[in-house]
Design goal:
Length: about 70
């Protein structure tokens, strides 16, 4: 259910909000990678989750830009 809720939430956002969300995820991913290099990472699975979230955001933003271009 968690993924479906996230997807519904992401679909409700506009293109600018999606790019802001993507930027937040990328910054968090960077911080987690730095923690991983210093062996201070508590939840290694969070890296995988963020990568998937970034991919979802990019997919939705492409869908929205294609939809606007065809109008």
């Amino acid at each position: 259910m968690k993924r479906k809720d996230q997807l519904v939430e992401l679909r409700a956002l506009g293109i600018k909000e999606l790019s802001a969300k993507e930027k937040e995820c990328r910054e968090e991913l960077f911080r987690l990678r730095m923690q991983k290099s210093t062996a201070a990472l508590e939840k290694p699975s969070r890296i995988k989750e963020l990568k998937k979230m970034i991919a979802r955001i990019q997919t939705l933003s492409r869908e929205k830009t294609k939809g606007e271009d065809s109008k």
